[in-house]
């Protein structure tokens, strides 16, 4: 177990709420419901999704937040169980007076958190948008998830330096004050370590979801990113990359078919880590389409 600390510089928007003795960051815009709530992937934080959030807030309430131990929220031991994060999010939304039901938008690890939220609080969820994420049937279509060793400080420092251009490009259209804050945050060793810690117990995600039983039927749109992250090109052979694409199609086809109102959309021009900046219009449209179906 490890803990993280909030960055020294404060974010110029949003509010902090005390949940079980931990200060959690939440930013909301817009009015109406169902509210749309974004669940970041490992290593990501709420403001990664500011571009989609701004689109959503034109027609309903949109919520960005940082899980405990990440971003601008207070310290937490990492990694955490899916249930811990789901319960924390529900308490935060209640404290911020964002009424249920919600349309959850999960990205990567955020999809596993969304699945657990649906298991625990089905009446609180109107629908889910899954952005290229982990779900409980992963290993029926994909290579087994493995526990990942957290790299040492030197390796994390190298990753942060090599990522500078990626983050500057990713947040190029963000307001300057927020863009600079996000880039500076992600170039720290602490931020890289947080992402590595969150990813370090991957097999436990699947075990927890499966052990909890079936996920209640909830309208959904699943989105697959077929583009390849730069790191994946280095770590995987062309054959493995082809298998990855094929496996993801099968996985999310099955997820969409598992509920009466499910849909699978494939994004050929989007990569896993940057799906919301590679194809923002398509992601924003999926969120709006699902919201209109359930509102």
Automatic annotation (TrEMBL):
Residues 36-286 form the AB hydrolase-1 domain. One of its GO terms (cellular component) is membrane. Gene3D superfamilies: alpha/beta hydrolase. Pfam families: Abhydrolase_6. The keyword Mitochondrion does not apply. Coiled coil: none annotated. InterPro entries: AB_hydrolase_1 (IPR000073), AB_hydrolase_fold (IPR029058), AB_hydrolase_sf (IPR050266). Keywords: Hydrolase. GO terms for molecular function: hydrolase activity. This is Alpha/beta hydrolase.
């Amino acid at each position: 177990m490890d803990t993280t600390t909030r960055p020294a510089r404060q974010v110029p928007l949003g509010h902090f709420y005390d949940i079980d003795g931990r200060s959690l960051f939440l930013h909301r815009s817009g009015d109406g419901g169902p509210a749309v709530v974004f669940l970041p992937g490992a290593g990501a934080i709420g403001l990664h999704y500011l571009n989609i959030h701004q689109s959503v807030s034109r027609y309903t309430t949109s919520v960005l937040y940082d899980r405990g131990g990440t971003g601008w929220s207070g310290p937490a031991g990492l990694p955490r169980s899916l249930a811990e994060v789901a319960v924390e999010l529900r308490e935060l939304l209640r404290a911020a007076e964002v009424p249920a039901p919600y349309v959850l938008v999960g990205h990567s690890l955020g999809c596993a958190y969304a699945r657990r939220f649906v298991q625990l609080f089905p009446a609180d969820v109107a629908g889910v948008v899954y952005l290229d994420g982990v779900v409980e049937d992963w290993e029926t279509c994909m290579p087994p998830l493995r526990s990942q060793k957290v790299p040492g400080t030197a390796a994390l420092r190298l990753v942060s330096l090599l990522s500078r251009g990626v983050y500057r490009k990713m947040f190029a259209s963000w307001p300057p004050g927020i863009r600079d804050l996000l880039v500076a945050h992600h170039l720290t060793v602490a931020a890289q370590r947080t992402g590595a810690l969150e990813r370090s117990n991957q097999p436990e995600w699947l075990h927890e979801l499966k052990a909890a039983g079936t996920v209640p039927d909830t309208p959904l749109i699943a989105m697959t990113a077929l583009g390849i992250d730069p790191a994946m090109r280095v770590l995987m052979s062309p054959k493995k990359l082809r298998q990855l694409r094929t496996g993801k199609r099968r996985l999310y086809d099955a997820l969409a078919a598992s509920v009466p109102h499910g849909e699978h959309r494939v994004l050929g021009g989007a990569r896993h880590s940057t799906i919301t900046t590679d194809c923002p219009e398509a992601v924003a449209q999926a969120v709006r389409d699902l919201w209109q179906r359930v509102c």
